[in-house]
Amino acid sequence: MSIDSIKRYHMSRRKLLQAAGGGAAAAAIAAKFPYLGAQQAFAASLAEQELRTVGLSVTVQERILNDFKEKSGVKAVSGKADIFPNTQTELLSGSTAYDCWETIGERLAAVVATEKITTIPTANLKNWANIRETFTKASDRWDLNRQIVGQIWKDETQTELWMVQTVYNYDAIGYRPDLVSAEEASTWASLFDPKFKGKTGLNVDPLIAFGQAIMAMNTLGLLNVSNPGNPNVEEIDEAAKFLIAKKKEGQFRALWGDFGELVNLLASGEMIIADAWQPAVMAVKAQGVQCSYATMKEGYRGWAIGVSPITGTPNLDAVTAYADYWLSGPPAIAVSEQGYYSPTTNVKDSMPADKYAFWYEGKPWVGPEERGIKEGDLRDGGSLETRAANVAYWHQWPDEYDHLMAKWDEFLSA
Length: 414
Hints:
By secondary structure, the chain is of the alpha/beta class. The chain is built from 17 helices and 12 strands. The chain folds into 2 domains: 3-169 and 302-350, 3-Layer(aba) Sandwich (D-Maltodextrin-Binding Protein, domain 2); 170-301 and 383-413, Periplasmic binding protein-like II (D-Maltodextrin-Binding Protein, domain 2). The chain has helices spanning 3-10, 13-32, 39-47, 62-72, 84-92, 108-113, 182-185, 206-219, 233-248, 259-268, 278-286, 316-326, 329-336, 346-350, 353-361, 384-388, 401-413; strands spanning 50-55, 76-81, 100-104, 120-121, 160-161, 164-175, 200-203, 252-256, 273-276, 292-293, 300-309, 391-394.
């Protein structure tokens, strides 16, 4: 549904009253146990609360949840790993099974419009001060709502966040360098190259798959779309025809949605080139199998994941503490060593200098081999600064979402 149609469908008077009641309850909790000031009261509050979270397996990790429980003193933690489209549908259908959604920036529009999530003030985040400028300063390359800094904030005062970012990256193509050259893998068009028929993979999220198809079509001279993340109706139609034709030709080995599935397909050689997450590429390398992450001629896809509190949660303090925990050192190290980026420079003070230099600054690996990384190796794509300068577009909620989803259904059933 479009944002307007989602809002009309879900925001009945009864649900509005429920949301308002939930907001009042949350406010009462916050008033009783303010995060800043009465720290002992806040600690007592956490001991009475639990954290129920849902998100991708990227961030919903047992080791991270257990570490948060130990450090925060919350009563209990639980996490469910699921893909974004599934959780969005669940929340819009009225689920109250979670306290927060570890969502992705482009999907905030749907849950903000329907008041399914609430905000976290930056004043309640003691680890906020060292956040990277990517999340506070807009680029003049895109309209504000077409980049992450225009998606996460409640308003231009930048005092309240719809989503406290925890992980981000710039996605590219993962490939087997023993079977595909770096030059071949350096364009999104390679996913649709007949040379790799039956050996390529697309992400199962339609907002991602359409963007990739459009970037490829731009390169092939079939389209000329300035913002692949927000195509119009005609551009969606052309991309759908392209995707359906490629599917019927047997181009794709799989539409993957799970980290482990992606790793297994690349490691086995069933897929030799695919839209991929960099940590999956690192996991394949850790198995002793050659795998690389391409530097994209057209540019990368930028995205950020973070913690969004569910409206009416009785555990708002726990959610706030969890978001703040993500901005501290230990979880930032965990995701950095998988190949993601932490949105805060706090990680630099927590990681060994040589490891930070490798993961963030484009410097050679120093020390013994670790998970397939050998002395002198460089991170694929170079430094964070280099990769951030080569973004084709940020993930975003398309204006023609309804139409895109209808065409995605046609693709799936073709």
